[in-house]
Prior knowledge:
Helix content: 40-55%
Amino acid sequence: xxxxxxxxxxxxxxxxxxxxxxxxxxxxxxxxxxxxxxxxxxxxxxxxxxxxxxxxxxxxxxxxxxxxxxxxxxxxxxxxxxxxxxxxxxxxxxxxxxxxxxxxxxxxxxxxxxxxxxxxxxxxxxxxxxxxxxxxxxxxxxxxxxxxxxxxxxxxxxxxxxxxxxxxxxxxxxxxxxxxxxxxxxxxxxxxxxxxxxxxxxxxxxxxxxxxxxxxxxxxxxxxxxxxxxxxxxxxxxxxxxxxxxxxxxxxxxxxxxxxxxxxxxxxxxxxxxxxxxxxxxxxxxxxxxxxxxxxxxxxxxxxxxxxxxxxxxxxxxxxxxxxxxxxxxxxxxxxxxxxxxxxxxxxxxxxxxxxxxxxxxxxxxxxxxxxxxxxxxxxxxxxxxxxxxxxxxxxxxxxxxxxxxxxxxxxxxxxxxxxxxxxxxxxxxxxxxxxxxxxxxxxxxxxxxxxxxxxxxxxxxxxxxxxxxxxxxxxxxxxxxxxxxxxxxxxxxxxxxxxxxxxxxxxxxxxxxxxxxxxxxxxxxxxxxxxxxxxxxxxxxxxxxxxxxxxxxxxxxxxxxxxxxxxxxxxxxxxxxxxxxxxxxxxxxxxxxxxxxxxxxxxxxxxxxxxxxxxxxxxxxxxxxxxxxxxxx
Length: 634
């Protein structure tokens, strides 16, 4: 890797930093339901038959096992009932009555069988709920934290993992670590005190020198000096269910994505101000759903169009007035572009008027009025130019991000005002079809699920603008690509939008052949913890992965319980289909991975410890490939 600062970095290209105030408890419930074609309204309206049918027709591995268990129990119950019936019918063993009629004996046998089945199902549900309850509470214990709190948890996970690895060769560390864990296990130490003791042990173990606060985190095959997180933001507006007439407060709770952005950046700043180690650098992906934005090509004013726009660009470039900060001035195709990226007030309009002078007064007034009106629009062009306008994808890209991160989140220049945010805060763009994003509307003004059959204006133009913009600036996209998801649309539409086949028309176009895109989850379904190749994964391998800038991550798949099975079969697929290892990215999907795994630490640990990949291949997935994907490092 040509950027020395990243030679020992560990990348997690698929992680989330949101809590219940962003996604909402209802969205967590919805994740468990919609994947089985059940809605929250089905629960509210007591559609129990549909719920039972959908649950037991699920593709998840857990339910596959449970269905087999239930089948065995039913067969045993029937056998037991048959045995009892035989006793009743042949020997009168149960009631000691030779005068009982055959009909009575049949009824009693059926009744006993039903009692056995009811007790069995009750116990099965209880065991299942106990298992799920532990996972749910474990997940909520993370999701109820603010963003800084989540980062502190994750940091400690990494550091404890390093201590455990170090303890394999250092008996002193092993003894001290065991002592802390024993106290925690038997409730003889508060969580706060435990954290303090872990941190002190980490300092004593990894400190590089007596007079420095630098740390060398090296233990066994784990050797890194920083962890780069690329949290994927999502717009949870609507929270994943429609209001129901069956409940009084039936409007879904909402928190705009802009507030999630504020929370994430404030959390990043607080983490860096409090952490003694600062092992994380955090570069979020902005979640974009084109339904929420207009398409306003006229909001872009090119200098060559007429002398007024050229004059305005020159004046603003040299200006020290506050109005300058409300415009973006970019270079595009050897022309100057002027773009209002914040809403203008009446004072701003007066300043612009003074710039243009009295010549062509009517033309000047019309131009300024047009700019002012469109400064209020929420357009896709305004969004991309504001946050990615200076993104060039050059070889110095990481240094620009790193300098911006250090200035704003370590030195503390970020003041919580996201209106001041521009380029080099977001590393890329997250696209999430289950929330209604259509990667390729089949025709212009595509019918939209969102507005009840009305035409969505410029549906295809919006996605074309995103792809063209990203290709030119080498901006990475991550798109959700597995059937399990937070969904706000019906299952058939969700699967249609989320399928990798939906990207065929995009990636086959010459203008988009260099589009940098990561197919998150590699198209794998929940059933494939032991993974056999499914149609979505096969399609990614056969149709997309050969493109120069197409990648795939395996987030949420390398779980502790079954990680060896996953990695073993994943390696078989790589070898059988000759998958290019330079296209695979490590990802965790934390905290959603907690629905299946015990901790983030377990997920990382089993990635390093599985025998299916050697250290060089692992580094390819967690270091070299992500460096190319995120920062264009060759």
